[in-house]
Design brief:
Number of domains: 3
Structural class: alpha+beta
Bound molecules: 2-acetamido-2-deoxy-beta-D-glucopyranose
Helix content: 10-25%
Subcellular location: Membrane
CATH topology of the largest domain: Transferase(Phosphotransferase), domain 1
Family: In the C-terminal section; belongs to the protein kinase superfamily. Ser/Thr protein kinase family. In the N-terminal section; belongs to the leguminous lectin family.
GO molecular function, one term: protein kinase activity
Number of helices: 12
Membrane topology: Single-pass type I membrane protein
CATH superfamily of the largest domain: Transferase(Phosphotransferase) domain 1
CATH architecture of the largest domain: Orthogonal Bundle
Shape: globular
Keywords: ATP-binding, Kinase, Lectin, Membrane, Nucleotide-binding, Receptor, Signal, Transferase, Transmembrane, Transmembrane helix
């Protein structure tokens, strides 16, 4: 394992050898593929900003008439030196903005500044960069690349532009963007400075910058600058996420080149370089010898698997290559955002091998999440993880094989591909049993296991069917464990999940809760009963074409049983179907407080209690939601009850 210091030391030595006679420079690099608390030690948070799981959130998720936050890499960068110009850097990051009001506001910026503290009165249109009092008053103040989502000055181009701000909020240059900054999607940005000019790239296209400006940062910034992000809200508010950040640059670390020092260190440095190369060669040899690459990602230390015989084990890549005939496409079972799933045969046992896409940070993160969450879970309605493999660049998970594929294939097979399956394959009893099985699995995740787990991606294609058509919930790529100490906020990562299954509040609170899982469960139930896909649902409260709306319409019209899948030819228990449908609608209630817990849902499905009472008309989505009038048995499952009054305060100031 190479330590960071060791690398830096060698970089200094190398830089000394290469540029030693001219000046001394050191690499100033860091990389956050995701943001984790333990890595966050070298970030400093100001104002409203905080570390949400895996991301940085620069402002609060609530409407409070204006707030501001900044996050900086703790160590300042020595950017220039008199007479020697300014050193180059590249900063690549992913931002994600979701409006909390319509329209949202105000904006987010990548910023370099000598003063880390938030300037007074810099909320709202000032983006936390500068304030009226400080604007233009200091020759070396702040340089920012703003992503402005509000047209707040006559000087602003529009409400969706990128601008280069040099010690002023009026951009030196600004350009309207074709991508919608406020649409809640990940937007990749690269800010490249080569010592003479600054280029801003937005999106994947790196051939032409959106903005290029010739400038020497020496004219605008002090010698030592903090690099980071700032954002602010006003009456208009939005969620301002930074999801990843990579910075590579050089830094001057000694003003006066000391020739004597160079003469002494150069031979030493050459020695070091030779030593380092020998070390690398040794490491490379060792690696090629057994083809095993251990991962030193911190996530691996979270792997706590009991050493019992049923516990997942580590597989050799060779074993899995043989099992799947070298990932032969004939053995392909499915494909998803994460990668591909192959069928394999291991010593007469059939398995499903999930192969994550290469070189994807998300892939690695999901892989780790999946292993860490699922390996400690044991329930007959969960797909069992048999093991994993991480060798060379391959990330593989091995599961027991499910001969009856996934639920969506069974429900929609007939409609898509003629008459491949017998319609009675999924008769009413089976459908009811599948729903009951999924409810049991979810109740186990929410209430039954040691640490509460949110699945976050409940949908028909993630429910597998075993040889007896028992439902087995799978795909824990997005699942997250909640530590008992975190019980109150249940925050996981940024918005994730599958459109159509996502509760309307997901887009506002930007995280998963027990209730967003219940919502997805409700959609899944409707899908199974109606044999119909969930339909689209957009960022706004516009979910009119969704299955939830359609079923609720029928409920209001007194014809709820009309929605039941026609393929059943009317062969189903009317009483049971009505009960299940009403439960599903209650689970999809726009107010998360009104949704039942999985425990209650299970009792309804078992016929122990009546389904929750729901209004005839689908209630409108209102945020913040009305609190339930009385505290009932499910209250412990309402994470917002604490959150609302003290929004994320536990997370501030790390
Ligand atoms: C910045 O990126 C460009 C293009 O990828 C590269 O040529 C340059 O060397 C990089 N500069 C630094 C300081 O990393
Ligand atoms: C951008 O997306 C937001 C949120 O979805 C929406 O309110 C806004 O109208 C969109 N702007 C444009 C120009 O499409
Ligand atoms: C990038 O954008 C420029 C200008 O819009 C265009 O000419 C070029 O074809 C694009 N390149 C790619 C790879 O999309
Ligand atoms: C810093 O980043 C640059 C560009 O990505 C890379 O060439 C260089 O090797 C890195 N240095 C260290 C010490 O990681």
């Amino acid at each position: 394992m190479l330590s960071h210091d060791f690398l830096r030391f060698n970089a200094v030595a190398l830089a000394t050898v290469l540029v030693g006679a001219v000046t001394q420079a050191e690499c100033f690099n860091f990389s956050y593929p995701i943001f984790k608390p333990q890595k966050g030690d070298d970030l400093t948070f100001f104002g409203d900003s905080y570390m949400a799981s895996d991301t940085i959130q620069l402002t609060q998720n609530v409407l409070n008439n204006g707030g501001c936050g900044r996050v900086f890499y703790t160590r300042p960068l020595k950017l220039w030196s008199t007479g020697r110009g300014t050193l180059p850097f590249n900063s690549t990051f992913v931002i994600n903005i979701t409006p909390l009001t319509y329209p949202g506001g105000e904006g987010l910026a990548f910023i370099l500044t000598g003063h880390a503290d938030i300037p007074a009165n810099s909320v709202g249109k000032w983006l936390g960069i500068i304030s009226e009092n400080t604007m233009g008053s200091s020759t070396r103040g702040a340089v920012a690349v703003e992503f402005d989502t509000r047209n707040s000055y006559p000087e602003d181009l529009d409400d969706n532009h990128v601008g280069l701000d040099l010690n002023s909020i009026y951009s030196r240059k600004q350009e309207s963007l074709s991508v919608n900054l406020s649409s809640g999607i990940d937007i990749k940005v690269k800010v490249q400075y080569d010592g003479q000019g600054l280029s801003i790239f937005v999106g994947e296209n790196r051939s032409v910058p959106v903005i290029f400006e010739s400038l020497n940062l020496y004219d605008y910034l002090p010698q030592k600058v903090y690099v980071g992000f700032s954002a602010s809200t006003g009456v208009y508010a939005q969620i301002n996420y930074v999801k990843s950040w990579e910075f590579s640059g050089l830094e001057l670390y000694d003003d006066a080149p000391n020739l004597l020092w160079v003469w002494i260190t150069v031979p030493g440095a050459i020695g070091l370089v030779i030593g380092f190369s020998a070390f690398l060669y040794w490491k490379w040899q060792r690696k090629t010898k057994d083809h095993v690459e251990e991962e030193d990602d911190p996530g691996w230390f979270e792997l706590q698997i009991q050493g019992s015989s049923t516990a997942p084990r580590k597989f050799k890549l060779k074993e899995l290559e043989a099992a799947t005939e070298n990932f032969n496409s004939d053995n392909l079972l499915g494909r998803g955002g994460f990668g591909t799933v192959y069928k394999g045969v291991l010593v007469n046992r059939e398995v499903a091998v999930k192969r994550f896409s290469r070189n994807s940070h998300e892939g690695k993160r999901d892989f780790i999440a999946e292993i860490t969450t699922i390996s400690n879970l044991h329930h007959r309605n969960l797909v069992k993880l048999l093991g994993w493999c991480h060798e060379r660049d391959e990330l593989l998970l091995v599961y027991e094989f499910m001969p009856n594929k996934s639920l969506d294939m069974l429900i929609f097979c007939n409609q898509n591909h003629g008459v491949e399956t017998n319609p009675v394959t999924l008769n009413w009893e089976r459908r009811h049993a599948v729903i009951y099985g999924v409810a049991q699995a979810l109740d186990y995740l929410h209430n039954g296991c040691e640490k509460r787990v949110l699945h976050r991606d409940i949908k028909a294609s993630n429910v597998m069917l075993d040889s007896e058509f028992n439902a087995r919930l799978g795909d824990f790529g997005l699942a997250r464990t909640i530590n008992p100490s975190d019980q109150t906020h249940h925050s996981t990562k940024a918005i994730a999940g599958t459109p159509g299954y996502m509760a309307p509040e997901s887009f506002l609170i930007g995280r998963a809760t027990v209730q967003t899982d219940v919502y997805a469960f409700g959609v899944l139930v409707l899908e199974v009963v109606c044999g119909r896909k969930p339909g689209r649902q957009s960022m706004q409260n516009n979910y009119n074409s969704s299955i939830v709306d359609w079923v609720w319409e029928n409920y209001r019209g007194g014809s709820i049983l009309d929605v039941v899948d026609l393929q059943l030819n009317g062969v189903f228990s009317k009483e049971q179907a009505e009960c299940v449908l009403v439960l599903a609608l209650a689970s999809c209630h726009p107010n998360p407080f009104q949704r039942p817990s999985m425990r209650t849902a299970l009792r309804v499905l078992a016929g122990e209690v009546a389904p929750p009472v729901i209004p005839m008309d689908r209630p409108a989505f209102v945020w913040p939601p009305a609190m339930p009038p009385s505290l009932n048995e499910d209250l412990e499952d309402y994470p917002f009850s604490g959150d609302q009054n003290t929004p994320s305060s536990q997370l501030i100031g790390r």
